[in-house]
């Protein structure tokens, strides 16, 4: 067995510079969110002042609540539709229009968000729909459904179909076999897909800016409008809270994905 070579000094330096380039700005933002000074670039000691300012800012709280509502709603709808689409593509027979359906499902993965947002805006204008919570939710569902479908379809592709066949041999109909055998095995992938959709919705700015309306601004839109007038220390506190929330969601999604993979490896054909 070939031994793994040690990392050279050049590789270590390159890795350190790469990590610093990615995470040092985030670390500085987190540190300065505890800055007591009103000036963003001047350190004035440790303080939770700007976190108190955020929780007393009614407009920011309403925007954060709107973002959470949109993220939870769109992630739930996207998970349901994405899972059904993944099952249709993985378990369904070849049907007419399958290639077109697959292409339309995965189009948001490669399409620029500006084009997606503008297309949805034109659709809502043509339907004379009042832009607000539901238009943003529908837009985010369109964006995130394809990510859920990719995660769930990948998990379905690694499952042994003989497990379902054995359940049907024992008297289960296809629906019962799917609910009793397949669904528990792909549940971690579904959870991971939901969390990925939740994170993408919570972080979106471009599509939400096209589809939002008066009184329904999300937190990224509110932060962007504040930053254009100058960065306030309160923005650092808000961003730190968002980073912490997204980090927790990503960790849980990673654990769910690893659990899904381990269950797939341990599942033996009957």
UniProtKB/TrEMBL annotation:
Keywords for this protein: Cell membrane, Membrane, Transmembrane, Transmembrane helix, Transport
Domain spans labelled ABC transmembrane type-1: 64-256
Entry's transmembrane regions: 12-34, 70-89, 101-127, 133-154, 175-197, 235-256
Tagged with keyword Cytoplasm: no
Pfam families: BPD_transp_1 (PF00528)
GO terms, molecular function: ABC-type polyamine transporter activity
Protein name as annotated: ABC transporter permease protein
């Amino acid at each position: 067995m070939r031994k793994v070579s040690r990392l050279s000094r050049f590789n270590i330096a390159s890795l350190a510079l790469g990590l610093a380039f990615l995470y040092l700005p985030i670390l500085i933002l987190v540190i300065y969110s505890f800055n007591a000074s009103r000036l963003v670039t001047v350190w004035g000691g440790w303080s939770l002042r700007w976190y108190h300012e955020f929780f007393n800012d009614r407009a920011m709280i309403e925007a954060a609540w709107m973002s959470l509502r949109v993220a939870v709603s769109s992630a739930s709808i996207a998970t349901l539709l994405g899972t059904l689409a993944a099952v249709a593509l993985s378990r369904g027979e070849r049907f007419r229009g399958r290639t077109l359906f697959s292409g339309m499902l995965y189009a948001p993965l490669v399409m620029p968000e500006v084009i997606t947002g503008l297309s949805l805006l034109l659709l809502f204008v043509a339907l004379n729909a009042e832009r607000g919570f539901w238009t943003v939710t529908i837009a985010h569902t369109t964006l995130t459904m394809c990510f859920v479908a990719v995660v769930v379809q990948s998990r379905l592709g690694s499952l042994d179909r003989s497990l379902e066949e054995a359940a049907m041999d024992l008297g289960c109909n296809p629906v019962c076999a799917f609910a009793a055998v397949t669904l528990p095995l792909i549940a971690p992938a579904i959870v991971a897909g939901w969390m990925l959709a939740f994170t993408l919705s919570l972080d979106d700015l471009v599509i939400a800016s096209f589809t939002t309306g008066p009184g329904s601004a999300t937190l990224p839109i509110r932060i962007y409008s504040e930053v254009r007038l100058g960065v306030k220390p309160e923005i650092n506190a808000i961003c730190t809270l968002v980073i912490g929330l997204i980090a927790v969601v990503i960790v849980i999604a990673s654990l769910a994905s690893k659990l899904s993979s381990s269950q797939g490896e341990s599942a033996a054909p009957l």
